[in-house]
Amino acid sequence: MQQIGQAADDAAQVETNGYEARYQFFSINGKMLEHGDPLRVKRGERILFHVLNASATQNRSLALPGHVFRVVALDGNPVPTPADVPVLWMGTAERISALVQMDYLGVWVLGDLADDDRAQGMG
Known about the structure:
Blueprint: H1 2-14, E1 46-52, E2 60-63, E3 69-74, E4 77-85, E5 87-90, E6 95-101, H2 115-119
């Protein structure tokens, strides 16, 4: 059974049926990477991010290098125990509310972990 599953996974990497949704561009708040104004914060400030993965077909990741997200709500519901995570992994149509403590000076890009997605504006 594992061999059948592995063969299907291998085939899926190279064969497509033509029905896969592909996206040419990505944005955050309607702005592509390098086309929006930066968030300006002071050291020590906390930012509450309300993030929605508006894709109907693709999971997304979001990271803010050097910082940690404290997940406080999922799909609008408070979590019983907030958790600190380095990356937000979002399924299709999933919403996450997370706090970030801005303790490090510099310019940081909130964006996808995948280089090709950032090149298409996901940041």
